[in-house]
Please model this.
Amino acid sequence: MKEIIGISLENEMDLILAHKRTMQVGEQLGLTVATRTTLATAVSEVVRTVIDLTDNGKLSIVISGKIPRFSINANISFESDLTFRETDEGFYYAKRLLPDFHFEVNKNSYKIGMGLGLPRSLKLDEGKIGLLKVYFDTSSPLNAYEEIKNKNSQLNRLTAEQEKEIRIVRELDERKKEFISVASHELKTPITVIKAYTQMLRLLKAEYSDKVGKLVEKLETQTNKLSLLAYQLMDVSKLEHGSLQYDMAKVDLNRFLNETVSMLSNVHSHNKLDLQLGRKCVAMADPLRLEQVFTNLVGNASKYSAKGSVITIATSVSDEEDVVLIKVSDSGIGMSKDGVAKIFDKFYRMEEVASSHPGLGMGLYIASKIVSDHSGKIWVESVQDVGSTFFFTIPLISENLH
Ligand code: ADP
Model:
């Protein structure tokens, strides 16, 4: 069965279309004027009845059968809460014109089929039927109404396709979020166990050689990296499902930075960390989350610059004493303008570093959320091959005012 034309039945204009198009199909098939008029009149009778009471009908002119017997059928379907009967006026006349008439009701869905056998003398075959379809698919619209109708249905098709794509993308995104959530939690337990064993190994230092000691050190460094990644993954997952939790406390920033930078100096012993503290100030912040921001910024500064280079961490309190500006500068590889615009995006990594430096592009995304959750701002200034400076602000509490 091949549909040659399909027309949605919405208003009286479609009655004209249905009639003309049915006539044309008959003409293209080579039916006599009398036969095609009978077919088109029967179709019009049913279509008129349907259009009078609903606007959701569909007419489909199809050719079915196989060599040597083919028939042409007009199938009309619609839905209506009103009750229709085979004996209603339009249907009754159509049935008289085309005795091969079917009327089917299923709850409020109606299907009407009518048709006639095509003479063998037309010498139809699959190829000719295919060409007939192409003819109607490519024929120009009968009038402005049909042109608009065609464009409309094209638009509807496109919208439906786009909606489907959006749905698929959303589903994939949900699955990805679910995967990240499960994966990060599944990783946490074995990593914690490995960490515990590594620490136990360190305590047993006296029982093994220096050579083994070096291996244990390496094991610990890599375990810490793995643990950091698992925690970052968990943070990303938390951000995707809501937000991070904070344990806010008054933080004496200079004291906090002295401690944090001293800890980070041990981790990044290949670089020199230069701490330039401004005026003493107090912020309301989650110290662990703040430490996470510094760990990321200083970690990046070290990762993306040469061994032995200096990383500067400087603070300055605003004149109004309501905010502290913190800078983390390096003289490393720097970033392109394009990179600068995107580095705070989730999973973004600059192409230049993708194969040379390990990482997953989560650190700055999380750091930027932590800063904005503290009502601060974060940004970067960078010149390629010269270096980068990350800036962020944290509001201060009035205790600073003296
Ligand atoms: P990761 O470093 O794990 O890839 P981040 O979110 O911390 O993830 O950083 C995102 C990207 O920003 C990095 O991949 C890198 O391209 C760029 N980047 C971050 N900090 C620096 C820096 N100090 N110098 C040069 N590029 C940097």
In short: The mean pLDDT is 94. The radius of gyration is 38 Å.
